[in-house]
Amino acid sequence: MHAPATSTPDPLPAAPDDGPPGLAAWLAVLSVGIGAFALVTAEFLPVGLLPQMAADLHVTEGLAGLLVTVPGIVAAISALAVTVGVGRADRRHVLWGLMGVMVISNLLVTFATSFWPILLGRSLLGIGVGGFWSIGVAIGPRLVPLRYTTRATALIFGGVSIGTVAGVPAGALIGELFGWRTAFGIAAGIGVLVLAIQVFLLPPLPPTRATKARDLPLLLKNAKARVGLAATVLMFVGQFAAYTYITPFLVQVSAMSVRTVSVLLLAYGAAGFLGNIVGGWAAERSARGALIGTGLVVGLATVALPLFGQNAIAATVLVMVWGLGFGAMPISLQNWMFRAAPDGMETGGALFVATAQVALASGAGVGGLAVDHLGVPSAMLVGGAFALATAAVGWHFGRERNRTTLHAVH
């Protein structure tokens, strides 16, 4: 049977809603969350190691920046390609394969002696990242009963928050003490450990139907999914238009030292971890409310920075509030997509990841244009405007329209 034009196939049914999940189920979800931590850490490792890597490989820092941007581009493509390409493969086997790609990627970076093989290794990581976010995030809701799916998704995104808080600074510290290759070698070792844990904990996860290429545009016929993708574009453009230039802002406008900024960004990440928990709680109660709230928190905090950021205390408070919103952002958007199309979680996840990766890169460019023409504070205003537009989209277009062809968003 073919699915109706307004829905998507059901490749990933949720676990039966027959009571609270047991310890084995939560440990399986945790193993996926640890995988998220490992991938996020590996993806952003070069951020803190770029000067060392550029000097050692005898390339400019601008060229070395490809080690960050290329994986993002590959991830956007892979999110769609992997979802379609894995067909009827058991999803736990797919996840194992993606973690294996992550290990190979980091080993290549660790032992390669020139720039281009290292860039190849980083490109392989993009396959792992894109594939994980389309396949892996959709696995969480399969492991627990329906009413616990938001908590499972929040636990997986908790791995992202921890990777953001601890992974990048830890990689930079290891690189400073023992060299940048050691940091990537340790990342490969963590990947091996995560793979072993997932082999032990993940149950069989066969799909009921393979996702086809034609299913991807089919989701765009779902009005709620279109709202979610529009919100994803606005939120990610806004977040990274501002966040890309947060360090120059705090140094130039708030007159903070580089060391103080580093500590504040760690606190930002810690606030993001708390925001992930709060966002999961809010999304479980109202997908629309969580989406609007996230846009308001990020938007108001960033817009207020140019107004009050000359005061270091005010800037610190606003950055912490921003961190809360940042932590709630992925779970709010992903939960919206899941609820908009609960019978197409892999398809929704793939489109979400591809859209987010493109918007992330675009956001940095939009912020850069603002900085070049209007100064560093303008990046905060532009980013905040996009985030507030997200809230407006959720408010105006997120209401139920009583159409039987759409799934409810609560």
From TrEMBL:
Pfam families: MFS_1. The chain crosses the membrane at residues 23-42, 62-82, 94-118, 124-144, 156-178, 184-206, 227-246, 258-278, 290-308, 314-338, 350-371, 377-397. Gene3D superfamilies: MFS general substrate transporter like domains. InterPro entries: MFS (IPR011701), MFS_dom (IPR020846), MFS_Efflux_Transporters (IPR050189), MFS_trans_sf (IPR036259). It is found in: Cell membrane. Keywords: Cell membrane, Membrane, Transmembrane, Transmembrane helix. The keyword Metal-binding does not apply. The keyword Iron does not apply. Residues 28-402 form the Major facilitator superfamily (MFS) profile domain. It is a multi-pass membrane protein. It comes from the Bacteria. PANTHER family: CHLORAMPHENICOL EFFLUX PUMP RV0191, PURINE EFFLUX PUMP PBUE. This is MFS transporter.
